[in-house]
């Protein structure tokens, strides 16, 4: 019996308590964060109702092509008016080198696929957060009216610390 089988059995019972929210989704804020299970409670730790948050997760809190796609739909189609990018300390993507992983996988599998083009590993979470914020702020399809702010989540403290990101003029803005 696999974990998935157990989950499906549980779902058959738990779904009896399920109450649909009704209507189309109407989130007010987009949150990009890591897939790390320690980040799963971050929405509630900000006091935000689940229904208000368009939650976009991937390994390493990366603003890549797919995250940009989600953010554009979120702000242009769903109506979210703010974007938060929440990186965290002790991230798995800061514990290995993407190049090393590629070499290992090529050696183990003998395959050289074109995707993923990179794993977006990093060493400095704060600096990495700044880069992700800048990628979103500079995207021409993200309105300049939408505030884009970056944070680090402390996995031991549950606290968010803002990462200030300078705009093009060198002024720290949030
Ligand atoms: Zn992480």
Automatic annotation (TrEMBL):
Spans through the membrane: none
InterPro entries for this protein: Carbonic_anhydrase, Carbonic_anhydrase_sf
EC number annotated for this UniProt entry: 4.2.1.1
Pfam families: Pro_CA
Superkingdom, taxonomy of origin: Bacteria
Cited SMART domains: Pro_CA
UniProt: Zn(2+) binding residues: 34, 36, 88, 91
One GO MF term: carbonate dehydratase activity
Cofactor-binding details, from the entry: Binds 1 zinc ion per subunit.
Group of enzyme by EC: lyase
Known catalytic reactions: hydrogencarbonate + H(+) = CO2 + H2O
Cofactor: Zn(2+)
Keywords: Lyase, Metal-binding, Zinc
Family (UniProt): Belongs to the beta-class carbonic anhydrase family.
Protein's job: Catalyzes the reversible hydration of carbon dioxide to form bicarbonate.
Name used for this protein in its record: carbonic anhydrase
